[in-house]
Design goal:
The protein is built from 1 helix and 10 strands; from the N terminus they run βββαβββββββ. By secondary structure, it is mainly beta.
Length: about 100
């Protein structure tokens, strides 16, 4: 986990999760567009072997499935299944997710 990431409360990160930061001196990627590291909301769970890369926000109560590569913002209450990590159009988490 990069020291530049920010995390909310009650965040669950399983083994081999990478929260990636883009070097602002490299001149490419999200850092060159004004961002650098992921921001994790409250009560987010990121399962094993997932990568959250660049200046993306994982909204509160979102879930990132195993083996995902997330390079876009994830709205609050969204489940991100599958290895490509694209949030489906409408698959909110249960409102009582703990």
């Amino acid at each position: 986990m990069t020291p530049y990431s920010s995390g909310g409360s009650n965040v669950g990160l399983f083994q081999h999760v990478t929260l990636g930061w883009n070097d602002p001196h490299a001149g490419t990627g999200p850092a060159a567009r004004g961002g650098s590291a992921p921001a994790i909301g409250d009560r987010v769970v990121v399962y094993s072997n997932s990568v959250v890369a660049g200046a993306v926000t994982l909204g509160a109560r979102s879930i990132v499935g195993a083996n995902c590569y997330v390079d876009r913002a994830v709205p609050a209450g969204t489940v991100v299944p599958g290895p490509r990590g694209s949030p489906p159009p409408a698959s909110p988490c249960s409102s009582d997710f703990r």
